[in-house]
């Protein structure tokens, strides 16, 4: 009888432990288990990609690339591709890779990026032609406007001769200047819209820097081909176009340079 009551008292005391003690003991076990658990990998915070600067994106790209090669990736593939694409827009050298082999195409290729210096050089040349054509068109017109003031001091019987000269110079200036100015304006407009893009990159065969002007309207169906100026191998430029909001709607271009065949010096040897 006494044994039964004693066991009942012990069970009641065990059951009636305060709730705060049970919660604190449970939280203590959870915190102890969380402290013993190893922390996962973390990456550099860059914020939205559209507003992130070049230095932070390069640091994140290098960290994610090294972590991927070590077998412990930090970010998903889609995010990695977006960071790489943003760095290409910045013109970062961190995303420019060495020539390598393509398993799908069974050929060697290298990365290509837009050559802004060549675009500016070509644009400056056509700007000179535009100025020349505009001057040839406008100078005879301005000269004809000033002719009536000069003819007032001449003999009335010979007044038709300056008029013929004026009409001749206006027609000649229009025939010469207008085609030059019109063609220059079309080329400059195409350069701004990237209808004609300049690409540069390493030759997949010899590693020397090569460049080419590529017509974007024809590159999808028939990629542009050129020869390397060093090893004379045949190269194929394949481009990709992206729309950029921060460049006032101007498209920007990047792509790859594929080795088509060995020719010239390498082929003869």
From TrEMBL:
GO terms for cellular component: chloroplast thylakoid membrane. The keyword Transmembrane helix applies. The chain crosses the membrane at residues 119-143, 155-178. GO terms for molecular function: oxidoreductase activity, acting on iron-sulfur proteins as donors. It comes from Psophocarpus tetragonolobus. PANTHER family: PGR5-LIKE A PROTEIN, PGR5-LIKE PROTEIN 1B, CHLOROPLASTIC. Keywords: Membrane, Transmembrane, Transmembrane helix. The keyword NADP does not apply. This is Uncharacterized protein. GO terms for biological process: photosynthetic electron transport in photosystem I.
């Amino acid at each position: 009888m006494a044994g039964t009551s004693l066991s009942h008292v012990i069970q009641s005391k065990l059951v009636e432990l305060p709730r705060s003690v049970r919660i604190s003991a449970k939280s203590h076990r959870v915190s102890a288990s969380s402290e013993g658990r190893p922390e996962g990998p973390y990456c550099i915070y860059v914020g939205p990609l559209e507003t992130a600067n070049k230095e932070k994106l390069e640091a994140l790209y290098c960290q994610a690339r090294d972590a991927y090669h070590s077998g412990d990736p930090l970010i998903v593939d889609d995010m990695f591709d977006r960071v790489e694409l943003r760095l290409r827009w910045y013109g970062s050298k961190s995303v420019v890779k060495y020539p390598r082999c393509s398993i799908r195409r069974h050929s060697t290729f290298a990365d290509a990026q837009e050559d802004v210096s060549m675009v500016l050089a070509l644009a400056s040349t056509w700007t000179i032609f535009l100025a020349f054509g505009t001057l040839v068109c406008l100078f005879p017109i301005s000269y004809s406007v000033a002719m009536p003031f000069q003819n007032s001091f001449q003999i009335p019987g010979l007044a038709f001769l300056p008029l013929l000269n004026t009409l001749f110079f206006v027609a000649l200036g229009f025939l010469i200047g207008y085609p030059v100015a019109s063609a220059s304006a079309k080329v400059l407009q195409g350069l701004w819209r990237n209808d004609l893009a300049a690409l540069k990159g390493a030759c997949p065969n010899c590693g020397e820097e090569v460049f080419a002007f590529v017509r974007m309207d024809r590159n999808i169906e028939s990629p542009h081909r050129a020869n390397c100026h060093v090893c004379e191998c045949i190269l194929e430029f394949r481009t990709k176009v992206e729309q950029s909001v921060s460049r006032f709607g101007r498209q920007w271009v990047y792509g790859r340079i594929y080795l088509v065949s060995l020719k010239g010096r390498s082929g003869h040897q």
